[in-house]
Amino acid sequence: MADDNLALVRQMWAAYEEDGLEAILPFAAPNAVWIPFSAGGRAFEGTDEYRAFIREQEAKEEIVEARAFDFESAHDSVLVSGSIRLRRPGHLAENYVYWVHRFRDGKIVFTQSFSNPDEARAAFTSSG
Which domain does 17 fall in, by range? Predict the structure, then answer.
């Protein structure tokens, strides 16, 4: 199961690189919870709610550029290490970010981004 989840996350990143942030959403369940770094801790209860946020960002010319460096899987979760660049009019920020994705029945049901690697590791190991 962990290997299947890892393969799905790699496919999701390939879709993101090809078609942008909205391309990751089909990998998630409709009721997935999203807590993205770009939202400053805000949680989205459902993929449609997160999709609306992504579109709001685009309308405000806020651009998220993410890169994945490393992937690790265990049980029902995948930990991704990478970086994120947030571009807003007149502002640019880049950070290392760690994403924890949890799966159920082949779909992401929870994703949270962390800037602190220890917090990410704790969330990743507590999920299994």
Answer: 2-126
Helices (H), the chain: 2-19, 47-59, 117-126
Closest CA to 5 of 113, 77, 97: 77
Q: CA of 107: how far to CAs of 70, 71, 93, 101, 114, in Å?
A: 20, 17, 30, 10, 21
Task: Report the domain count for the chain.
Answer: 1
Q: What is the DSSP string of 59-78?
A: HTT-EEEEEEEEEEEETTEE
Answer yes or no: are the C-beta atoms of 78 and 71 closer than 8 Å: yes
User: Which pLDDT score is estimated for 59?
Assistant: 87
Q: Is the pLDDT of residue 27 over 90?
A: yes
Q: What is the pLDDT of residue 128?
A: 52
**CATH code, domain with 53:** 3.10.450.50
Helix (H, G, I), strand (E, B) or coil at 81: strand
